# Entry
Amino acid sequence: MTSTGQVERGPVADRSPLQAGSPPGQDLRAALDAFAQAGQLIRVTEPIGWDFEAAAVLWRLAHGPAVVFENVTGYDVPIVGNVLNDRGKLAAALGLTVEQTQQRIIDAVDRPYPTTLVESAPCQQIQVDHDIDLLERFPVPRISEHDGGRYLSAGVVVARDPDSGRHNLAIARIQVHPGNRLGCYFAPTHTYQFLQRCRELGRPLEVAVVLGSHPALMAASQLLVPGDELEHAGGILGQGLQVVRCRTVDLTVPAGAEIVLEGLIDPTVAETEGPFGEFPGTYSPQRDNPVIEVQAITMRERPLFQMVVGGTHPEHLVTGAVAREATLLRAIRAVVPGARAAIMPEGGTCRFHAVVSITKRVEGEGKLAILAALSNQDLLKRVVVVDDDIDIHDPVQVEWAIATRMRADDDVVIVPGVKSNPVDPMSRNRTIAKLGIDATLGLEEARGRLPRPDVPTDVRQRIDARWDRIMGRDD
Ligand SMILES: Cc1cc2nc3c(=O)[nH]c(=O)nc-3n(C[C@H](O)[C@H](O)[C@H](O)COP(=O)(O)O)c2cc1C
Ligand SMILES: [Mn+2]
# Structure
């Protein structure tokens, strides 16, 4: 694997704004256009099967371009993947740098944009409300070898809080059975809580599964805040999200979606779902889980079918990372104003580990950042805090900071027995120990210290300017 730093600082991340002066588009097609301009899109015309083959190609291009499979065996619907497999993709779709994107997501939490309701929408060009056989209509892929079946893996589940009425977004794995029944899994976060509330109220939960989304919507779906996530998606886009009313459920969905499945979850029903290859690099077991009964499909005329490769594929990891990193940084900044950036690296599955850089102003801020970070997310169980001269995207620099700025007896914090998340394969009795490493220098130690050994900057620049000649290349 190449170093994460190289991946994230690639040509996509460093692009200047794509459409200076004009707002970015809001749908998957606009994002694909942005990727194409950045040289980050491939259209495959060779026949590719939904049965592991699309996943195999996306694995081979793990951190690479987005892919449109134009010719999927047996279907007239293209598959799209690798839309958010690299932080630079979201940045490119927004016309921002990776650093600006992190700040944009933080701002989106504090400043949601109201949605704009439209009457007619691309996602309702075609409407189907009978003979709903999803496997006949869509090239639903098989992804990992031991998955229990064919899965929608990029479906954003839209639902409303039964009490407040606000809209929530959550990507969930969804197993497609023949006909109109979908098996799905919800960890005990918002959608799960809504379902519990519906059980108390004795009514079904209305849902819409949105397939084919702008990466800003995918990122918004991963926010761990209790706001209206359609409005937060607008905040990330920097413009109000256009939405349209669903036809058979009381929900609104992004007007530019490719495919929308409208349905109900009866909270008293559970059927077999799984196994499914999950982000920790383990399979979730087969269990009795909720079922969505699809009652209507709306879609574009020639829709694109979006997928995310499950398991430790970078798209499953990074899609979950961008919002988590931003809200983590926001929480740390509330107590350590000099917190500069946060990353949840792929080695830690973009969920379990974080690295945070701070400009330390007061002694003890490293430890304070640890405490703020570890309490911010249930999955997060190891955080490393470094000084602002460390590039947190470069695992070698982070390790160097730990090697040269940490004393294990003073700088390590372990909190045992913290409530964990059930998807952590190491949780025991539903708890986990959390680890913090303060790899920042003490203020006194930092004072008067010479910089890291290197040649003088002006000499380096002189040598750079003469480089081709020194290497014997003609100009
Ligand atoms: C590709 C992908 C697949 C996911 N699958 C699931 C899933 O099957 N069940 C689940 O609870 N969360 C899943 N997640 C994580 C949730 O989408 C995420 O935790 C989200 O913030 C939950 O939203 P909520 O807090 O509003 O419920 C997945 C995330 C990604 C990126
Ligand atoms: Mn939520």
